[in-house]
Structures are given as structure tokens and as C-alpha cells.
Amino acid sequence: MNTLVTCHTNADFDALAAMLAARHLYAPCGLLFPGTQERPLQKVYAELDKTMYGFVEADNLRWDDFDRLVLVDTRQHDRVRHVAPLLERKRLVVEAWDHHPDSLDDITADAVHTAPMGAVTTLLARHLQQNGARLTCGEATLLGLGIYSDTGSFTYPSTTAEDLLAAAWLLAQGMDVNQINEMASHELTSLHIQALNSLLESARTYTINNCQVVLAEASLEHYLGDFASLAHKLMEMEKLPVLFAVGRMGDRIQVVARSRNKAVDVGEICKALGGGGHAHAASASVRSMLLHEVRDAILRCLKEKSSPGKTAREYMVSPAVGIDATATIREADALMLHFGLKAVPVFQAGSRVCVGLLDAQTASRAGAHGLGNEQVDEYMQRRVHTLPPQASLQDLTDVIVGARQRLTPIVENDQVIGVVTRTDLINFFAGDPGQLSVQKHRRKERNISRYIWDRLSAESRNLLNLAGELGEKLGLQVYAVGGFVRDLLLNRPTRDIDLVVEGNGTALARALASELNGRVREHQKFLTSVVIFHDREGRESRIDVATARLEYYEYPAALPIVELSSITMDLFRRDFSVNALAVRLDGEHYGQLVDFFGGYQDIKNHTIRVLHTLSFVEDPTRCLRALRFEQRYKFNLGAGTEKLIKNALSLKLMDRLSPVRLFNEYRHICDEADPPACFIRMNEIGILQAINPTLTLNPGKVALLRRQREMFAWYTLLYSNDTAQPWLAYFYGLNTGLPYKETSENYDRMGLPQITKKEILQQREQMRMLRDKLKKWQRKDDTGSAKISTLHAMLRPVSPECLLTLMATADNPGLQKNLSRYITQWRREKPDITGDDLHRLGLAPGPFYSYILQAVLAAKLDGAAGSVEGQFRLAKKLIREAEEGSNEQRHQNEQG
Fold first, then answer.
1. Long-range contacts of the stretch 823-826 (C-beta < 8 A, 24+)
2. Reduced 3-state DSSP string for 729-776
3. Annotated domain spans of the chain
4. I need a surface site. Which of 463, 672, 789, 834 has the fewest CB within 10 A?
5. Looking at the predicted structure, is the pLDDT value of residue 189 above 90?
6. DSSP state letters, 625-642
7. Cα 162 from Cα 824, distance rounded (Å)
8. Where are the beta strands (DSSP E) in 154-210?
9. Which pLDDT band holds residue 679 (cuts at 50, 70, 90)?
10. Contact indicator for 347, 370 with CB cutoff of 8 Å
11. Which residue did the predictor score with more confidence, 575 or 729?
């Protein structure tokens, strides 16, 4: 009997592997591969030895030569149209191997081998094992690739024990797991990233009988292979329970559906669209409908397949597994590993009262950072939503999905009687079909457009409006984010505008630059662009534009690694809740405040709160930043945030911070309105001591720092061209009284510029020696015998930072007054005659010019040569004396 083996159109790894497995059961036979849209599979198929495996081309086939057709991974008519001529033969024997449920479109086969397994290759591998088949290492690897692919490496809910047993048998046959990983890898091109951005920006969440279903759409000019891989990527990025990714590509619409919720069978819905698949993974290719019609069809199907809601008591697991707040992170991690839990409630020691929540990811990351012996209450989530037993499914969904809390403690009489986890919600969601309520899920958001109108300048408003209009034109969601929004809400002067775009941020930046007659500087590594332009006053201005992104840290104090994400994750990567705010600028959403983390309420409560418990571990600079914001806005650190800072200090994480990053934060502190307040708070918390114990403040240093602030405020009002660097002056203040060696060590630790280290430390030593000289000079001045020129000569080499520090340390009012006069008047004095005048007096150019001009300036300062005429007389006298001295020296030389 001549046999042809084939699979469904747009084949996947499982389909190809099943064909290769069927080859052993039906040899001799021909294999007809109908093609695939997945690039990794295309690459694998292209590298196969077609002759060895018996692959044939459809164009070369004579259908009459075959009297048996074997279908794998499908039995639906619409999915095997490439063998339609063969199916028309009357005496054809048809056999099917499938793991999909029955459908009305199924072919009537003579024999059907089916079972609900994660991969159809598993079913065939079981028969091969029973028949005692022997496979080559390459064949075992290809079959394993099919199983790994269709089970998500055994992570999909559809995975069965049979899949694992089949993989074990293939491993014994020589399956290479490393090679499987290489063959199945998906490399995203720039087109894939653009499509992923389109899916992210268009994603809409629908509440379907309290189940969250996300529909995301992308319109592409040309066909894009591996569209299914984007759906998988989106599921992982956003942790979605159900996703329908719809891509319009030319004249067709591709639907890829994934579900982690047993209540939503995406296979049934895709089957209604002409496709098929499993309950957890399915797809469809639609040619006869428009994009919005496909969306409406999906929603109608969801309505028909809905399940009813239940109460929290029906969903909860009781008794709840939890851990005492005094237990260690290592103990909590072991407990969750033992029970296979993603999170546990944290109980007050010796009770069932819920005081927090700890998730497995936090415990694992903390352990990786060497924090296994720390107590659970150091890193637990303290804001925990609890519900009573009679809570509705909508209440549970709001907590677990809306608030992104992994589990909900169910509390009765202040005691935790059970928990409902995300997994519990999925497992219990399936039930008898009930009436479905479909509505778009919207977060209740505040609109602050009136603040934009009332509190911003016309120029700033116009820039925001322009960004929003361009975003709407380009189909992009545009947000102003971070400190700009924070200061807008606080009614403080707003700084540079930072924009985040869900989609192609570079496209918006280029459009802005074009409209503003500016230019764009792009940073591809960090997905950011800077639009540089000139404002109405001709001053250079800038707007930062970023593609929505997330950051993660490979180890404590590391620089962040950036990945594409949504606005939610972009805000989550920020440091504090008050900085994790955004305002929408495009279209009808203009002015909507995006506040996922309670930043608006924290602003109202004057609280600085960190976003997650490992924030300071991953980036210790946030410890300094927290105190800087606290002092700038006169806020208070949240109790949990202050505790986490102290915990980070106890772990000596400041030691891992590079000097460059430390200097960057230190310089920002010195640029604040009240740096001494920041330093005092840093000393109270222990940050200065963590940088170096020698920086610990005492009352004398505190008084000096405060005097330096007064001096800087005074100096700023002078509008002097000779600017002073606050960071340098405060470095002198922080290191006052310390010996040279310790000051040098602090210079290096704090990351101050190495190129000027020698000069700065020399200035410091010179300043120290000057203090006694200045006191002696002032005593003479008190008696009227001091010369201003002497003071001028002492202070001329001294930097502005040292001058201000000398003023701050001077305890004599007379000396302070004279230092002030030097800064405002005497240091600016110059002789009224110049080098040109000396040349006209007949003096040849040379070093003597400088001597004469300095002598003339000294005489002017001391009142001995106040007029121009007097200065000319003095200059002539000095020239004459020099000439006489020169003649006398020449005469002596001649006599000699």
C-alpha cells in the first residue's frame, strides 16, 4: 500500500515531528510538508536531508499512486486543502493521529488515534516505544523538539504525564536538549519589535464574567512570519491570563490565541474563525473578514463560552500555607518550593493575622543577592488587599489581576482562613455555562488637564499638545512621565519634559524635531531619544523621548539592563511611587493620570515610598535619592521605605556602588536648595557613615555646612562670572578637620573628578594654611596697619569654593566683612594702565611687565596710587630703577 503522510498547513514543530515519527510506523511512505510561517521551523526543515527522510514535493506527486493518507496533528478538512485531490479518491484509506478535540469539520477517517496530550508527537512516540523502535540521535532530537514546542517546555497547562514520559524515552534514544533550545529559539527582527509594540499599544482588556481577556491588534504592510512567537512574548511580558493577538497582514488576518484559564477554551473560539488548536493554544487565518469584524467575532464567541462566577469561600484553599514574619527568607523560599507556591501570606508571629505578603520571585531574588538569612518582614509586601469569604469573583479579580497581587488572603474575624491564588482562580474558573457580561475593563483614572492649563506656561502646554497630536497622527500612545508629572501635581516649577511612547518612540522624536526645527540624538541601547531645539527666547531646550521599557539588575548596584515593555512596566522600573506617574497626551485620553502604584495618594500624604522591597538592593543610589526627594519636598519617608534603606546599609551595599554613580547622586544633592538638610538626614540614617565613617557629622560640621549654604545663597545673588561648584565647596565642608590622607580617600570614594584631584587637594591645603595668616592680617587691620594688597596677594590663587568656605569658617565679623569685600570688589580691581602703556614708555616686552603691573595694582589697592597719573608716575619710577639697576650690573660685569 502506497502511503502519503502529511500535516496541517502552516505547520509547527509538533506537526513536523509527528510526520517524522509516522514515517517509522508506515514505512515505506512519502512525507508531504505543506510549508510553515515560522522562521525557526523553516530553517530546521531547510537543513533536513529530504531524500533520507522521504520528503516529496507536491508539484511532482501523482495522486493516483497513493491509496492511503496519514494525517498528523489535524483531521480538519480546512487545514489539509493541499491534499484535496487525494481526498476525492473513493478507495482511499485515511488514518489520523491527533490530540485536538473533535470538530464538525473533521474528516471521516478509517482509523483515528487520538488522546488529550500536550503534543501529538507524544502519542506517536508512545506507539514507537511499544513497537521497540530505534531512533537516531537526530530523529530523537527532532521528535523531542515537537514535544518541547507544543508543551512550552512542559509549562503549558495542557502538558500531561505522557509528554514527560515520551521525552524521557527520547532522551534515552539520544535526544540533545541543547540542540532543541537552539533550533526553537526565536530571534526578533526590527519588524517583529515594531509589531510587538503595536500589540502592546493596542492591547485592550475585557472583563468577561470576571475573567480578564486581552485583545491586541497589529496592522502590517507585509506578511510577518513567527507572529505566534510575538503572542507568546506578550503573554510572558504582561503575565496575561488570556490573549488574542490579531495581526492584519495584507489580505489576511492571523489570529493567535493563548489561554492560561480553563474557563476560556481558545481552541473552540479559533475553530469558529476557521482555525483550530487546543484549549490553551490555537490559531486561525481569516481572509473574509475585516479587523473589527474578527474582534467582534471573538467577543461573541467568548460570550457563548462563558462560565458563571463564584464566591471567595468557594475558590479559597483552606487552611492557608503561610509563614511567620520572623522567619528567614531562606525558610520562606524553601516553604514555597516544597508546596509549589508562587506566594504566601506573612503572619504576625504566633498568630494567623496577616501582616504582609511574600512572593517566590522576591524570595528567590533576595536569596540570589545573598539575603537568605534576613527576616521575611524586611522584604515582604506590606500593603496587602484581603477579602472576606463572601467576596465576589469580581472582587477577587480586582485584587489578583487589577492590583497584580499574586494571592488574596481570605479573612474572617481578623484571622486568615484561606487564600485564593492566581492559579486557584484559573483552576476553579471552569463551570457550567452561564450568562456572560462583556465590557471593556477600564481603570478609574483621574484627569488633570486643568492642571496642565492652569500651572504650565503657554510654551510648555504647546509642546505637550504637539506631542499628543503627533502621537495620535502616528497611532502612538504618548505620555508625559516621572518628575514632570510629580512637580505638576505639586504645583512646583516643572523641569525638562520627559515623554514615554507605547510604540515607536524614535518615530515620535523625529516628528517632534521636524516640527520644532530641531535635531534628534538617539540612544538605541536604552531605547531613548533626545529632541534638541531652541525655544522662543533662542535658548537650547530638550525633550527626552523613550520607548516604554523595563529595567532589571543582574546583581546589586549594577547598571540596569533595558527591555521593551508597556507603560505599566515602564513606570514600575522607577524608584518611588511619586515618580511612577504619567499623564496621557494623545487624542481623547488627553490629561488622564496613569497611576498604577498610588503615587497621587502618596503626594497628598507627603510620603516617599519605594515601589518594591528589593529596590535598594538592586540600586543603592536610590537610598540617597529617597532622602534628596524627602528634603526637597518636605515629605517623610514611609516607614517601610526607611526600614529598607537601613537594611540595605546593614548589608553594606553602599560598598558595591561605583564611585562614578555615587558622585552623580552626591552632585544632585549639592544642587538642591538645602544640601545641608540632606547631609544631616543622611547622617541620621547612616548613609554618610556607610560611604566612609570619617564623613560622620558633628555639631561643628553641621554648623559649617549651614554657613556654606548661606554663603552660596549670597554668592548666587552676585551673578558673578566666576561660578562656584556646590559639590566642591560641600566636599571641603564634609572633610573639614580631616588629615590629607583621609580626605584623599574620601575624594576617591565619592568619585570626584580624578583629573582635578591634585589641584583640588592642593587648594584645600592652601586654604588650611591661610586661616592663620588671615587671622594675623585681620589683627593688623583692626589696628589700621594691614594692607589690602597683602590680603589680595594671599587670596588671588584661591578658588571661589575655597573663598566661600573661608567665609563660612571665619568667626571674626571683621574678617568676614573683608573677605566679602575682596569677593565683591577687590578681586575685580585692575591697574588703570596696561602693557601697551608700558610699551609706550619705552619698556621692552618681558617678565618685568607683570612685576610693574602687580606693583601698580598693589599701590592702587592701598591708596598710594589711586589716580591714573599716580600709576604712571609709579610705573616710570619702577622702569627707571630697573634701568639704573641694569646699568650698575653691567658696569660691575665690565669691571670684573
1. 823/715, 823/718, 823/720, 824/718, 826/788, 826/791, 826/792, 826/861
2. HHHHHHCCCCCHHHHHHHHHHCCCCHHHHHHHHHHHHHHHHHHHHHHH
3. 3-184, 190-304, 312-430, 446-657, 707-828, 835-895
4. 834
5. no
6. HHHHHHHHHT-EE-HHHH
7. 88
8. 204-208
9. very high
10. no
11. 729
Assess contact for 297 and 268: CB atoms under 8 A. no
What confidence tens digit (pLDDT) does each residue in 80-130 have?
999 999 998 888 999 999 998 887 778 999 999 999 999 999 999 999 999
Q: Between 3.40.50.150, 3.20.20.210, 3.40.50.720, 3.30.460.10, what CATH number should domain 446-657 receive?
A: 3.30.460.10
Residue-wise pLDDT tens digits, 408-467? 999 999 999 999 887 666 554 333 333 333 333 333 458 999 999 999 999 999 999 999
The closest of 142, 3, 160, 156 to 83, measured between CA atoms, is 3
Helices 458-474 and 505-516 pack at an angle, to 10 degrees, of 130
Beta-ladder partners of 641: none
Q: Show the cell assigned to 844.
A: 621692552
**Do the strands 3-6 and 68-72 form a parallel or antiparallel pair, or are they unpaired?**
parallel
- 59: Cβ contacts below 8 Å, ≥ 6 apart: none
The CA-CA-CA angle for residues 832, 838, 840, to 5°, reads 115
In the block, cell 519617608 appears at 637
Cell digits of residue 218: 497589529
Which residues contact residue 803 at a Cβ distance below 8 angstroms, ignoring those fewer than 6 apart?
795, 819, 822, 823
Find out whether 13 and 141 touch, Cβ atoms under 8 Å: no
Between CA 666 and CA 736 the distance in angstroms is 17
Greater confidence (230 vs 71) lies with 71
